[in-house]
Design goal:
The protein is α+β, with helices and mostly antiparallel strands and 150 residues long. The protein is built from four helices and seven strands, in the order αββαββββαβα. It is globular and about 40 Å long.
Amino acid sequence: MGKYLFFVMALLLSACGSNGPEEIKLNSDHCDFCKMTISNGKFGAELITQKGRVYKFDDLLCMISYAKGGNTEVPNGNTAVHYKAHYVADYTKENKLVPAEKCFYIKGGTIKSPMGGNFAAFTNNKEQNEFQQKYNAVPMTWSEVYSSIK
């Protein structure tokens, strides 16, 4: 009986879904939007649905395009779905995902991301300012990044 109860509890816990980002396996995982292999740990991203399903992306452009396209958990075709969380790779830390809304962003200039979104995310504005000057890029907030992709 004890083994059976343990199995049931493990099954229930695994059904709860993800509460945070999953590790992106570089050169193995594929982007859920463009289907390319995720190979650059500076630009990866993840989207977690309300049900806990994790979707992985090789570029912020792919993640936001996917979210706005209503590809998951969209009741009655409503694309205004609210996701549980968006995570982005910190540009200065190889393959480290952080909450998107807490990051500072730059776009353009000489930044070259895998799918041409050309965004870079940073966990503090000191790094944002440093790389903005280095890459001749434009500073942005999460809200500006999200709304800039149609």
